């Protein structure tokens, strides 16, 4: 299932509408507001029977879709879920101390890493949330355990200080603010059903609790806690034997009922905003929402002297961002700080030929396709940084391919199609490359744009929507591309008008 853009953004209006109608207008915080006064804001709920429910704050007890989570180890159960701001993917932690990426449309789960993290999970009530500033998972349990986990390896990143600072506290829900890719500040909030209090965990790595205030309810359990990108916080709690969705006032701690939930809900997660990445001519990483581009920039460091990043893409197998360097090197990029790490011992054997490059992962074989405006057509190995194959030159004629993207951009895909943008004479055309290894271009249609060089292109793995960064008339814009006709529409200008190349959509979009 897909949601309209305003729902995926969770509406900044939620802050105004809910705050006004709920916290100010309601005389009784136990009385749920009229659903029609609430925004159309979706979220997902996890049940104790390994199911995902697609819900909305307007209809908290009426799932629009239900899927069973599959692909887990025998007898394993998911205990908590959260969306990763850097990619938009849904993650979960199991009672077997494993991290999974879960397709919220199909329920298919894929383990990250080959073994459980250590130390093992200690507790049955688990708070799980992404720290958006460093792209790491915070895990806290009612037993006081306080861990950081790595979303690309599934391993423990750090064992932090046990929860402290509040006598008798049993943390069962935790959530970070500022839940967007590329941000530099955030606050971690915790809910404790033992003391019925909201706390800040400050500093998070020390595990120290600082009280915010009373929840205003005598709850017996927390079944998930999350904060939307716009700052609104919701929690699933058990009160009087019933499971309810509550809005949480982060200033006071006070809860306001939004509606009833299915009785077996043990976790909730709010989708993060669509996220895209691009690079400019001075090796800055630009992070932005392709539907409303307001980039955050981070300098890419760790490259060879004088090297330029020519293309980027996320690896579906592990959610890691890869980059192509102008010295014929492959890199991984830390999306939170821009640090580049070279893959392999040196340049790959097939020296790059050209000035503009398509760079994209084939999700069916986990190899990188590189094509250039001079006709080069390579496959690279993401584990070694070496050339996997030198394929047939781009044909027929002498086309100038400047951007490439595969469909079905998710781990486990069994079919895919490679699309290219070609800009000979400035007239941008969309082609399929079929078969990819032969380099043969098959026309789809004109984008209707007079495009300059250095373009970016990618296709969402969940939505199937294609976006292109095209520079036309001296202005860089992001367009939606129709893969059936080739037509480009939209054309939102990038603030600051940077010279961008390469584009990678978060794998959850």
Structural account:
The structure is a single chain. The strands form ten sheets. Strands 3-2-1-20 form a four-stranded antiparallel sheet, with no helix packed on it. Strands 4-5-6-7 form a four-stranded antiparallel sheet, with no helix packed on it. A four-stranded antiparallel sheet has the order 8-9-10-11, with no helix packed on it. The relative contact order is 0.10. It has two domains: 5-269, Neuraminidase, CATH 2.120.10; 276-505, TolB, C-terminal domain (Neuraminidase, 6 Propeller). It is built from two helices and 40 strands. Residues 1-27 have low confidence and may be disordered. The protein is elongated and about 75 Å long. Helices cover 3% and strands 44% of the residues. The chain is mostly beta strands. Residues 1-24 form the signal peptide. Keywords: Signal. Residues 52-269, 285-504 form the DUF4394 domain. It holds the Pfam family DUF4394. This is DUF4394 domain-containing protein.
Distance between the termini: 12 Å
Whole-number count of domains: 2
Q: What is the CATH level 1 assignment of the largest domain? A: Mainly Beta
Q: Would you identify the CATH architecture of the largest domain? A: 6 Propeller
Unreliable segments (pLDDT under 50, ≥5 consecutive)?
A: 1-27
What is the overall silhouette? elongated
Helix content: under 10%
Q: What does the radius of gyration come to? A: 23 Å
Mean pLDDT: 93
- DSSP helix count? 2
Q: Classify the secondary structure makeup into a structural class.
A: mainly beta
Q: What is the β-strand count?
A: 40
**Biggest β-sheet: strands ordered side by side in the sheet:** 3-2-1-20
Biggest sheet layout: 4 strands, antiparallel
Strand proportion:
35-45%
Indicate the CATH topology of the largest domain.
Neuraminidase
């Amino acid at each position: 299932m897909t949601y309209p853009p305003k729902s995926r953004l969770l509406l900044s209006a939620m802050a105004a509408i809910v705050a006004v109608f709920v916290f100010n207008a309601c005389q009784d915080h136990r009385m749920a507001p009229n659903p029609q006064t609430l925004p159309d804001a979706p979220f997902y709920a996890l049940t104790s029977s390994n199911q995902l429910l697609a819900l909305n704050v307007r209809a908290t007890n009426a799932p629009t879709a239900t899927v069973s989570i599959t692909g887990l180890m025998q007898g394993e159960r998911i205990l908590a879920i959260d969306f990763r701001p850097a990619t938009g993917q849904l993650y979960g932690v199991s009672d077997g101390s494993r991290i999974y990426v879960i397709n919220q449309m199909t329920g298919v789960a894929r383990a990250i890493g080959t073994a459980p993290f250590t130390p093992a999970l200690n507790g049955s009530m688990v708070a799980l949330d992404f720290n958006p500033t460093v792209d790491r998972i915070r895990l806290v349990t009612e037993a006081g355990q306080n861990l950081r986990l790595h979303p690309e390896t599934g391993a423990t990143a750090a064992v932090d200080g046990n929860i402290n600072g509040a006598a008798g506290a049993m943390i069962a829900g935790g959530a970070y603010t500022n839940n967007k890719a590329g941000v530099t500040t955030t606050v971690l909030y915790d809910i404790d059903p033992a003391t019925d209090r909201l706390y800040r965990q400050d500093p998070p790595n020390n595990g120290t609790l600082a009280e915010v205030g009373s929840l205003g309810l005598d709850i017996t359990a927390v079944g998930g806690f999350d904060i939307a990108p716009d700052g609104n916080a919701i929690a699933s709690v058990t009160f009087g034997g019933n499971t309810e969705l509550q809005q949480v006032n982060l200033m006071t701690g006070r809860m306001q009922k939004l509606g009833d939930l299915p009785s077996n809900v043990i976790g909730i997660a709010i989708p993060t905003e669509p996220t895209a990445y691009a690079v400019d001519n001075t090796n800055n990483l630009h992070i932005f929402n392709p539907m409303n581009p307001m980039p955050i920039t981070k300098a890419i460091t760790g490259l060879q002297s004088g090297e330029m990043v020519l293309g980027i893409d996320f690896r579906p197998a592990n959610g890691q961002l890869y980059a192509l360097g102008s010295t014929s090197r492959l890199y991984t990029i830390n999306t939170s700080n821009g640090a580049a790490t070279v893959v392999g011992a040196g340049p790959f054997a097939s020296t790059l030929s050209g000035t503009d490059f398509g760079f994209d992962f084939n999700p069916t074989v986990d190899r990188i396709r590189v094509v250039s405006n001079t006709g080069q057509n390579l496959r690279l190995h993401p584990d070694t940084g070496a050339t996997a194959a030198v394929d047939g030159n781009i044909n027929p004629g002498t086309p100038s391919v400047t951007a490439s993207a595969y469909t079905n951009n998710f781990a486990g895909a069994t079919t895919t199609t490679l699309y290219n943008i070609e800009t000979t004479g400035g007239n941008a055309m969309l082609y399929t490359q079929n078969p990819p290894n032969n380099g043969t271009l098959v026309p789809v249609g004109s984008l209707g744009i007079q495009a300059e060089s250095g373009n970016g292109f990618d296709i969402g793995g969940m939505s199937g929507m294609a976006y292109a960064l095209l520079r036309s008339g001296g202005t860089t814009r992001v367009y939606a591309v129709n893969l059936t006709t080739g037509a480009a529409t939209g054309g939102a200008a990038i603030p600051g008008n940077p010279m961008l190349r390469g584009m990678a959509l978060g794998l959850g979009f």
